[in-house]
Amino acid sequence: MSQNKLLIDVGSTYFKVCANNDINQYFRDFNKDIFDDLTSKCGDIISKFKKDEVFICSSANGGLTTLIIGVTNSFSLKFATNIAYNSGINIINTVLYQDIDTTSIPSDLIDVVIIVGGIDSISNVFDEKLFNFLDNLNYSNVVFAGTTQDEKYLKEKIKNLVVVDNIINNKLHVVEEPLKEYLTNLYQADIMGKEDIKHLYELTSNQIYSTPYIVNKTLPLIDTKFAVVNPFILIDIGGATTDIHYSKDLSMDNMVTENEYDRLVFKKLGVYKSKESLIFAAKNNEFVYELLEHLKVTENIFNEDSSKALKVLMQLAIFLVLYKVSDAHPLYIKLKLNLLKSIVLTGGITKVLSFEEATDIISFFYKKILNSDIHPAIIMDYNYDIWTLGITQQ
Question: pTM for the full model?
Fold first, then answer.
């Protein structure tokens, strides 16, 4: 890492500041503006760097929420979901166009609606069903990345529609950069609209990116800092979500993209903000009682507010997220976990679980679900500094 760069990650709970390879964490004061809080805690450090030497990423504004409308599960929805996740976007729902008439409409405000479907050689993919759905949806932005032949028709019917290149070419390969660039710029605009985050541009002349986007850019460089062997997954367990970043050669899907790595987000498997949904998922898992017995606790642990209960929730999150991408119960994609060489754990989990406790739950998963006595190598990002590898990458 260059000695003349200051790296800052503004999280929902902590500031993480890295200067000259030395990383420190500062618990945020929620009674203060982010800029004021950061400069009061780290002003002496920040003053030593020029604006072009300061690089900032942030998850403090919660990221953007999106709803995706696609024509097919196997192409448009899958491809658009892949691009959105890798852009650091939170997907709250996907809608298969043929089911749009019977799909329940979310009541929450959606930051961006993505409409995709059809290769450029076909037309008349969309009709009045789309416009009726959008009329009842509460959203701020809408982007179309489908067949060019429907572009004019949709622009006439949908106010403020943004059009980017079709994400599917005529060879059914993914064209991801135009939509990814739009989503990244939208995140940037969202930051600029948030008073407590846009002040951070007083500290840097570089673009502020979402932290999940930065982590994904880190993955090709991860072996420069950790003893990671491909193929690997990185599990980032935080307060609201659990993210998996994974090597593309682990996926059962033959999706042709430019990225070596992809990302999945499980919004209901966090251990603080989504604690109740994590417990619900655990209670509805067929292996939960064996798992609790293995951990030498009972179901009463779910009602406790203790360090032991937090450890168990962290272990449950690891088990459930592996379960959801395994042959046992694939959710969005199925990963070839039997080929996995390394599992990297990062996020709040490394401050709670010991190496032995993380190893124990992963070993249980491999024995119970994959019938294997052998599990991948486990790497703990104890300093939570993986993000520093990717933040200066353009």
Answer: 0.72
Place of tokens 């600029």: 192
User: For the segment 135-188, what is each residue's pLDDT rounded down to a tens digit?
Assistant: 999 999 999 999 999 999 999 999 999 999 999 988 888 888 999 899 888 877
- Per-residue pLDDT tens digits for 113-135: 999 999 998 889 999 999 999 99
Count of CA atoms in the C-beta half-sphere (13 A) of 275:
14
Q: Give the sheet arrangement for strand 342-347, strand by strand.
A: 261-266, 242-247, 232-237, 342-347, 377-380
Of the pLDDT bands very low, low, confident and very high (cuts 50, 70, 90), residue 2 is very low
pLDDT for the residue 139: 94
Backbone angles phi, psi at 180, to 5 degrees: -65, -40
What is the side-by-side strand order in the sheet with 110-115? 90-96, 65-70, 110-115, 139-144, 162-163
Evaluate if residue 195 carries a pLDDT over 70: no
Residue 297 CA to residue 294 CA, distance in Å, equals 8
Most confident listed range (76-85, 145-154, 216-225, 344-353): 145-154
Give the whole-angstrom CA distance, residue 276 versus residue 336.
29
The span from the CA of 162 to the CA of 296, in Å, is 54
Q: Which residues, 6 or more positions from 271, have their beta carbon under 8 angstroms from its beta carbon?
A: 237, 238, 239, 278, 310, 313, 314, 317, 348
Rounded to whole angstroms, how far apart are CA atoms 194 and 123?
39
Which residue shows structure tokens 């990345």? 145
Whether the pLDDT of residue 269 is over 60: the answer is: no
How far is 81 from 68, CA to CA, in rounded Å?
7
Phi/psi of residue 303, each to 5°?
-95, -5
